[in-house]
């Protein structure tokens, strides 16, 4: 059973040397347990936060701990009647090939609804994050301007498409021409600002003639400062993530004045604290996928041992779409 451990806390930016790949015995399922062969591992930005020994909303890893993470896998041995061999499941089974789990730790997947990999993306944690943050905190109204950063990514791509479904003007911010072209031409956003090209401020101003009513924040840093400078009165900001500051670069923020003078609502959230929201959001998004209104893109790294490198890539924008690792064949 190949596993990926955190060898040491990163000093500054994470490197491949901060991980260790080990071989362990394949576990035996006990009573009320199943043995799962992981097929896809999800790589997510929050995993970087878990690697630092600091207080957060969840416990951090210690050296020698296995990297945690969501997976989709196949039940290959079962002591649970309702989870027969051959069932596809989603759980927090970590960076490893095989895991044992109980039924209440697993979500059963129906491959007929959508490809099972989507349980880690658009029909899973990132999709629910987008739906919850936009609808519950952003409260978009038709005709308003919605802005989302990391717009081509797992969360951002869903935020913008839902905002379009709700009748908003949607402006994305992403790194590079390819990602921006995809966001506008494939996903149907009204505009996308390439923050790596030219005068980002001027391009953003031109793309938001009516300023910004809803901002879904994924990155922080200069991009956040810029968007706060164009907030409207009574705008809403969902603080979902601050990825530009995760990898050893803590950030300052100077935009408080914009919150005050615009009487803006700014709220952070953690999607795992809103599990009751998931089934409804997933059901609605599955319907939009079927209707062709919601598109998604995956970026799949091959083999569990490629996970550390792919994870470093996620933190520097090398991924294009939801970053997954294929651990074993479907
Ligand atoms: P993505 O698929 O969007 O991948 C991460 C993207 O972030 C990269 O592709 C890159 O896009 C962008 N990025 C990386 N570094 C920087 C940087 N220095 N400056 C600007 N952009 C950068 O990841 P997710 O959709 O999974 O996550 C997006 C955000 O949502 C993250 O901040 C994450 O922590 C947060 N999140 C929060 C949750 C919650 O419960 N609050 C739950 C899930 C996610 P580009 O090339 O365009 O720069």
UniProtKB/TrEMBL annotation:
<dbReference type="InterPro" id="IPR020843">
    <property type="entry name" value="ER"/>
</dbReference>
<dbReference type="Pfam" id="PF16884">
    <property type="entry name" value="ADH_N_2"/>
</dbReference>
<protein>
    <submittedName>
        <fullName>NADP-dependent oxidoreductase</fullName>
    </submittedName>
</protein>
<dbReference type="InterPro" id="IPR041694">
    <property type="entry name" value="ADH_N_2"/>
</dbReference>
<dbReference type="GO" id="GO:0016628">
    <property type="term" value="F:oxidoreductase activity, acting on the CH-CH group of donors, NAD or NADP as acceptor"/>
</dbReference>
<dbReference type="InterPro" id="IPR013149">
    <property type="entry name" value="ADH-like_C"/>
</dbReference>
<dbReference type="InterPro" id="IPR036291">
    <property type="entry name" value="NAD(P)-bd_dom_sf"/>
</dbReference>
<feature type="domain" description="Enoyl reductase (ER)">
    <location>
        <begin position="15"/>
        <end position="325"/>
    </location>
</feature>
<dbReference type="InterPro" id="IPR045010">
    <property type="entry name" value="MDR_fam"/>
</dbReference>
<dbReference type="Pfam" id="PF00107">
    <property type="entry name" value="ADH_zinc_N"/>
</dbReference>
<keyword id="KW-0560">Oxidoreductase</keyword>
<dbReference type="InterPro" id="IPR011032">
    <property type="entry name" value="GroES-like_sf"/>
</dbReference>
């Amino acid at each position: 059973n190949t596993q990926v451990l955190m060898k040491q806390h990163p000093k500054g930016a994470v490197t491949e040397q901060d991980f260790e790949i080990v071989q362990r015995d394949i576990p035996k399922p006990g009573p009320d347990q199943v043995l799962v062969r992981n097929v896809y591992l999800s790589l997510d930005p929050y995993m970087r936060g878990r690697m630092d020994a600091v207080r957060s909303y969840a416990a951090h890893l210690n050296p020698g701990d296995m990297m945690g993470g969501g997976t989709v896998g196949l039940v290959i041995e079962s002591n649970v009647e309702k989870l027969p061999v051959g069932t596809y499941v989603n759980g927090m089974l970590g960076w490893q090939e095989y895991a044992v789990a109980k039924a209440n730790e697993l979500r059963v997947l129906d491959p007929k609804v959508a490809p099972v990999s989507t349980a880690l993306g658009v029909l899973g944690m990132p999709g629910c994050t987008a739906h919850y943050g936009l609808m519950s905190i952003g409260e978009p109204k038709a005709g308003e301007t919605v802005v989302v950063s990391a717009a081509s990514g797992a969360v951002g791509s869903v935020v913008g498409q839902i905002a379009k479904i709700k009748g908003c003007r949607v402006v994305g911010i992403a790194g590079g021409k390819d990602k921006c072209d995809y966001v506008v031409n494939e996903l149907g956003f009204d505009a996308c600002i390439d923050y790596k090209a030219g005068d980002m401020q001027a391009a953003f101003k031109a793309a938001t003639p009516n300023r910004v009513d809803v901002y879904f924040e994924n990155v922080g840093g200069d991009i956040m400062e810029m968007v706060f400078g164009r907030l409207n009165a009574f705008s809403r900001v969902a603080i979902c993530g601050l990825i530009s500051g995760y990898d050893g670069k803590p950030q300052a923020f100077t935009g408080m004045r914009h919150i005050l003078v615009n009487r803006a609502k700014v709220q952070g959230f953690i999607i795992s604290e809103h599990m009751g929201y998931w089934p409804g959001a997933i059901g609605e998004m599955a319907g939009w996928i079927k209707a062709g209104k919601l598109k998604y893109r995956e970026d799949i790294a091959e083999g569990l041992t490629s996970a550390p490198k792919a994870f470093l890539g996620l933190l520097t924008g090398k991924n294009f779409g939801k970053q997954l690792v294929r651990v074993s064949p479907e």
